[in-house]
Amino acid sequence: MFAKVAFPISGFKTFSYIIPKNLKENIQVGTRVEVPFGKRIVKGIVTELQLSVSFKGHLKEIASIVDDLSIMTPELWSLIKWISTYYLTPIGKVAKAVFPKTLSTRYKPPICWYVKVVENYDKKNLILLKKRAPKQYTVFNHLINNNIIIKVGDLSKYCSSPMAICKSLEKIGLVKLIEKTLLPDATGFIFDPIHKDVIFNEKQKNVLKSIIKSIDKNKFESFLLHGVTGSGKTEIYIDAVRHCLLSGKTAIILLPEISLTPQIAGRFKSVFGDQIALWHSKLTQSQRSWTWTQICKGSFKVVIGARSAIFSPLKNLGLIVIDEEQESSFRQDSPEPRYHARDVALVRGTFEKSIVVLASATPSLESYYNYKQNKLKYLHLPERFGVAEYPTVHLVDMLSEQKESGKYGQVISGLLQDKIEDRLSKNEQIILLHNRRGYSPVIRCSDCGEILNCHQCNVALTYHQKNLQLLCHYCGHKESSLDKCCSECKSTNLLYKGTGTQKVEHLIKDTFGDVRIARLDMDTSKTGLGITSILKSFAKGDIDILLGTQMIAKGLDFPNTTLVGIINADLGLYIPDFRSGERIFQLIYQASGRAGRKDKKGEVVIQTYAPDNPVINNASELDVLKYYNIILQEREELNYPPYSWLAKIEITGASRDSVNNQANTILDNFENRYGGLEILGPVPCYLERVKNRYRYQIVLKSLKKIDINGKLLHSFIEENMERFNKNFPSRQNRINIHFDPLSLI
Ligand SMILES: [Zn+2]
Ligand SMILES: [Zn+2]
Fold first, then answer.
1. Whose atoms come closest to the Cα of 692: which ligand?
2. Which one of the ligands is nearest to 493 CA?
3. Ligand 2: distance of its center to the CA of 453 in Å?
């Protein structure tokens, strides 16, 4: 017997090996093996079993098997193959992204001891105890008074060795010790379990009924659940998952970023307890492999996590939910494979014969279009949960505001200031969105007008007040602002322009005195724990104003928040990308949805310099469908997705000339162009230089009318690039191919 083995390298080639007799039983397609490769032993994955090989040279033997249990299902293997083909990524690289590094670690999660009082204990023992062992008596008294299950360690307030005391108490039949495994996820990423009693309204009942009916069919079906913020989507996921578990099935819930949605994880945890695994980037290698192994063994039935949770090796999958499906974090751009977890989920659904629910208050335009094309079934929750109403929106034209007040560069309008004051006096909470971090995002020389750029990137440096630093947000380069001068004329007269979150924070403190404000952006939330603790304090009411970048616009539910202010709605509007408008619309809409819950009506103040811009205008009307119909028409006229397939060939390298030449050589050597294919470029990318590498791109659009399933575009790129790499191999430059890129900048 022979096996073809693929490696996590950039080539698509596989290599044949002999399967030694002692391993014959355990090697299947998808098994990870160690094999001699040149002079080294390397890890690879078996892609095919063969009875004979045509290769005439000397074949080597597989040395060993990497994992000691089967880590794959046939459906997952089909998915890996699909990703490799669709995103033009070698199968070894896909496998590397899907599996934890190694699964044969000795990691065991820590164990924690709990104690509780035994029901119907013998009262006689207690009287004896009071006399003979007063310490044990104190501890027992504490337990009985609280009547809950308690961590043994927490009893150290009452005695110095709680474990020994609990053991003695157990011996005389007063308490019971309970061992619990501390799951790797449990610390910090979730809110304490949130218990809720939920009564669904008619609309919600109908949505749930459709989903459950579909789960029972045991076949692939996909839905777009369009539910406004606060319409109770999480509760519907929970009931659908409950139904899966009752019928012996499993489920995956994908969230855009787990640390930003601790409430959802907390809700799930309170309902399903230890049947849930959390899968996120903060897990260590060994926690990862332990969790993966437990999923393979069937100990976890539900996986909640960010995009890579879509690869969880669950068996008998019944349901995949993608919450906030429009979020760009579901797309992985680097390293390869460059995949979109939403699209991968839909494909996995077909292999698993399970149902896939894409959910959002502001669906991606693709999903909205797919529903219009009858590819997704539409489920609509147009109403907010309970009696909460939509917020009232005020649009503030900052230009006329400035004219009136005479204050140039005003950051907070009179209206927003009044509203903030009003809420502070009523002890209600406020969310302020400003989607730019740092203090001043632009530094300009007042003598020659030059803007200070990062020396490695064509990107303006941002001034950060902490440590008086200038930072490049693209490569992370830092320098002190103290002795900085203009790179052109050496003048030290520098103007700090523009407004970042730090400056807004500063202004708010200046205006409102001792207001309790917390800032949530990349600078204050280096760790997931930091984010959760800020969100927790806000939920508890320890913070009046939560200020932040788009991070705060996610699925948070704070009933006491009655005012949302958007400091500058235009940020990002003029970035030359076909999705800019859609993104800004979604951000404004999502942020506005944070205002008002339960019985308190919310208000939103949107500040803009472009009140007539259709994006801002429609966002302020909170009318998703109206805006979507406008941009769909725009996209159709310009042949952009969802009316075409899109691919981007990106060439990067240290020399501008070499990158430019190579890009042009690629273009000149394209063969077999077809009608319906549009080629744009090569042009320098919007950020032409990042980390000292120049970037050029060629964009290909293939009309769906002609190229129904994208196959024409795929084979065009595959064939041309294969020929190109053979004829013009380059060591200097890197060529990256992005299928369905989210942006063209
Ligand atoms: Zn200058
Ligand atoms: Zn830089």
1. 2
2. 1
3. 8
pLDDT in tens, 259-274: 767 778 778 888 888 8
Name 303's bridge partners: 252, 277
Cβ neighbors of 202 (< 8 A, separation 6 or more) are: none
Q: Which ligand gives the minimal distance to the CA of 449?
A: 1
Q: At what angle do helices 262-272 and 528-540 cross, to 10 degrees?
A: 80
Q: How far is the CA of 449 from the centre of ligand 1 (A)?
A: 6
**Ligand lying nearest the CA atom of residue 478:** 2
Q: In angstroms, what is the span from residue 474 Cα to ligand 2's centroid?
A: 5
Average pLDDT, the chain: 88
Residue 474 CA: which ligand is closest? 2
Of 157-171, 429-443, 607-621, 635-649, which range is least confident? 157-171
Asked whether the predicted pLDDT for residue 184 surpasses 70, the reply is no
> How does pLDDT run across 271-321, given as a tens digit for each residue?
888 889 988 877 888 888 888 888 988 999 999 999 999 999 999 999 999
What are the strands, taking DSSP E only, across 595-643? 603-608
- What mean pLDDT comes out for the span 177-193? 61
Q: Average pLDDT in the 536-557 region?
A: 86
Distance 502 CA to ligand 1 centre (A): 26
Which listed ligand is nearest to 446 at the C-alpha?
1
Q: What is the 3-state secondary structure (H, E, C) of 179-248?
A: EEECCCCCCCCCCCCCCCCCCCCHHHHHHHHHHHHHHHCCCCEEEEEEECCCCCHHHHHHHHHHHHHHCC
Residues with Cβ within 8 Å of residue 644, at least 6 apart in sequence: 678, 701, 702, 703, 704
Torsion of CA 293, 308, 73, 106, to 10 degrees: -20
Nearest to 557 by CA among 300, 713, 384, 676: 384
Three-state secondary structure of 264-314:
HHHHHHHHHHHHEEEECCCCCHHHHHHHHHHHHHCCCCEEEECHHHHHCCC
Segment holding 351, helix H or strand E = helix 341-352
- Distance, CA 344 to ligand 1 centroid (Å)? 50
Query: pLDDT tens digits for 482-493?
Result: 888 998 999 999
CA of 442 to the centre of ligand 2 (A): 14
**Which ligand number lies closest to the CA of residue 690?**
2
Please give the distance, rounded to the nearest whole angstrom, from the Cα atom of residue 452 to the centre of ligand 2.
Answer: 11
- 386's torsion region: left (phi>0), alpha (psi -120 to 50) or beta? left
Residues with a beta carbon under 5 angstroms from ion ligand 2: 454, 456-457, 472, 474-475, 477
Instruction: Report how far ligand 2's centroid is from the alpha carbon of 264 (Å).
Output: 36
pLDDT tens for each residue of 114-135: 888 888 777 777 777 787 888 8
DSSP annotation of 340 reads: B
Residue 461 CA: which ligand is closest? Answer: 2
Q: Ligand 1: distance of its center to the CA of 468 in Å?
A: 20
Give the Cα separation of 335 and 343 in Å (integer).
18
CA-CA distance, 49 to 27, in Å (whole number)? 9
Burial 75-96 (b: 16+ CB within 10 A, else e): bbbebbbbbbebbbbbbbbbbb
Ligand 1 center–CA 444 separation, angstroms: 8
Predicted TM-score of the model (pTM): 0.85
pLDDT grade, residue 529 (50/70/90)? low
Tell me what pLDDT residue 199 has: 80
Question: What pLDDT shows up at residue 126?
Answer: 76
Share of the chain above pLDDT 70, in %: 94
Q: What is the dihedral of CA 207, 190, 557, 540, to 10 degrees?
A: 150
Locate tokens 């355990």: which residue? 26
Distance 687 CA to ligand 2 centre (A): 10
Structure tokens at 126: 């207690």
